[in-house]
Amino acid sequence: MVPHVLASAFPLDSHFQSAGYSKRSSRDRAGQPGSGARSARRRRNSGGAEEQSIPSMVGNRMAWIDDSGLEKGASKIEVVRSVGRREVTLGIHDIDGTHSLIRDWPPVMSLSIHWAMVGGLNEDFDSEENAERLIKEVGKEPLPETDSFCVESAGLCALTQMEYGMRRAVEMGNIPESSGIRLTQAEKETNAQIVKRIWDGEERFDDVQEPATLKTFIRERTPRLFRLYEKILNGACRDRNTAAARKHPEKWRVAGSMEFMKHLRKCGVVNYFVTGAVIWPDGGMYEEVNALGFDIGPGRMVEAVEGSSWEKKMPKDEIIRELIRSQGVSPGQVLIVGDGRTEIRSGAELGCVTISRLPKEAVRQRQLHVSFGANYILEDFTDPFIYEMIQP
Predict the structure, then answer these.
(1) Residue 51: strand, helix, or coil
(2) What tens digit of pLDDT does each residue of 8-48 get?
(3) What does the pLDDT look like over 296-319, one tens digit per residue?
(4) Hey, CA dihedral for 97, 220, 322, 318, is it positive or negative?
(5) 37: helix, coil or strand?
(6) What tens digit of pLDDT does each residue of 199-217 get?
(7) ∠ Cα 157 224 305 (to 5°)
(8) pTM
(9) What's the rounded Cα separation, in Å, for the pair 320 and 334?
(10) 342-365 residue pLDDT tens
(11) Best CA proximity match to 103, nearest among 235, 202, 2
């Protein structure tokens, strides 16, 4: 059994207490060295040749979003902030939970972070033996803090989510003596502040000065926890569900997803998939997207899949900003579709059109997305009004 965390060392917000969310085996690939999102992206976009930047695929065609025809009560689309009529040329989409149902990641993420917090983070914390044991523990019992964290942190880079577990372990004193970490009271308070900042959605902490021992500990063990999480995910659901998706892809796509993507492309929207997961040719999230039947490549339904790496933190908002810059479009001409905080908040801050894909039972997530500035919230992509709202 994995021991429980009884209390957090920092003050809890009310929502912290209760929140709900409603190839060959990839288990060994979680240990495969990652080459980074940019290099993987270069391979896919250029057939193996290195590129210096992402080429712009946006042409003269464009779609128009016009929500003036949405009748209240007639459509299931919730209009949070109307955009009226606006042209759109670029679509940036989250994958997992937005278009794909393959990864049942919250219980796996929750258990992995909880294990980091309470397991001691000894040298063998990410051993194959521990991975196999933890696979059997997934979803067996509630883990209040980390279950809630997975709701709040959806959309953050996976390495940031893992860093939360590392810093909570430091905060709780559950780290090995051999780490050499000896924090002053002020340094403990700084670490606790970063824990809270991650909870609130921040990912970069370049403004903070910390001891070298702590930085080294987090830098070395966070990617290892990331790989452990992926191994557990693969064993608990990902490999099995990906195999099932190859046979019956429609069962593992969000309802209407394929039709929506085809419609956007037909209207002239250039689409990219973005993810906080690691991708590599024919592996990881890229394999899942292919299993679901999405056509990937220049000039196709989806231009490319943009992802993260094992070692380097790649916040999704930075990927989004780079895509917009490289495509040479105004943020106001960009459609962001997702179910995570990062893509929706980033899109709203930039002035993009934002669509949140969230089920009715995701009450906390819907509250968050409204506060972030989402324009529309929908359960899936089957409402005919979405096709009337977006036209060439």
Answers:
(1) coil
(2) 333 333 333 333 323 333 434 454 434 333 333 433 333 33
(3) 999 999 999 998 888 888 899 999
(4) positive
(5) helix
(6) 999 999 999 999 999 999 9
(7) 40
(8) 0.84
(9) 10
(10) 999 999 999 999 999 999 999 999
(11) 235
CB-based contact 102:348 (threshold 8 Å): no
* CA distance linking residue 378 with residue 93, whole number of Å: 14
Compute the distance between CA of residue 252 and CA of residue 210 in angstroms, rounded to an integer. Answer: 44
**Helix 105-118 to helix 128-135 angle, to the nearest 10 degrees?**
130
Residue pointed to by tokens 């009310």: 14
Give yes or no for a contact between 15 and 287, defined as CB atoms under 8 angstroms apart: no
Q: Is 391 helix (H, G, I), strand (E, B) or coil?
A: strand
Spatial neighbors of 25 by CB under 8 A, at least 6 apart, are 234, 239
Compute φ and ψ for 200, nearest 5 degrees. Answer: -85, 0
Residues in a beta bridge with 270: 90
Bridge partners (DSSP) of residue 268 are none
Tokens of 109: 């993420």
Query: Do 112 and 87 form a contact (C-beta atoms < 8 A)?
Result: no
Answer for the pair 61, 264: CB distance below 8 angstroms, yes or no: no
- Residue 91 is classified by DSSP as E
For residues 144 and 115, give the distance between their C-alpha atoms in angstroms, rounded to a whole number: 13
**All domains in the chain, ordered by first residue:** 32-101+253-391 (3.40.50.1000), 102-246 (no CATH)
Residues with Cβ within 8 Å of residue 77, at least 6 apart in sequence: 70, 376, 377, 378, 383, 385, 386, 389
Cβ atoms of 287 and 26 closer than 8 Å: yes
Q: Contact 152/212 with Cβ under 8 angstroms?
A: no
Q: What whole-number distance in Å separates Cα of residue 40 and Cα of residue 37?
A: 5
